[in-house]
């Protein structure tokens, strides 16, 4: 005879596995984004004809936005719930990453990297 809660616990176990996978992917992607901009800077500069100042802002915009918003993101997580803020942060980070792939100019790259830094702070 099946236990009445066996279907619910199987669903719960699958959900926990998906949540764990999402958190692990974020835990890998976010630290890579700190240095990923620096690694890609020469190629981005060549493709978009960026000068040295604009190329430096690829990394600086992310770090400045991330560092500035980290404490505020923690306060928002306390107020609105850590799961909600994490989900918004991961969603925003993913959206900004996709938008960066189609950025038409160095200014767009710099602004999108800043927005990506804000989202990364919320996800962390």
UniProtKB/TrEMBL annotation:
Keyword Membrane: yes
Keyword presence, Transport: yes
InterPro entries documented for this protein: MFS, MFS_dom, MFS_trans_sf, Sugar_transporter_CS
Residues of the signal peptide: none
Membrane topology listed for this record: Multi-pass membrane protein
Residue span, Major facilitator superfamily (MFS) profile domain: 19-124
Gene3D superfamilies, alphabetized: Multidrug resistance protein D
Localization in the cell: Membrane
Major localization listed first in the record, in broad terms: membrane
Keywords: Membrane, Transmembrane, Transmembrane helix, Transport
Record-level Gene Ontology MF annotations: transmembrane transporter activity
GO CC term, one of those recorded: membrane
Membrane-crossing residue ranges in chain numbering: 56-77, 84-103
Protein name: MFS transporter
Organism: Burkholderia territorii
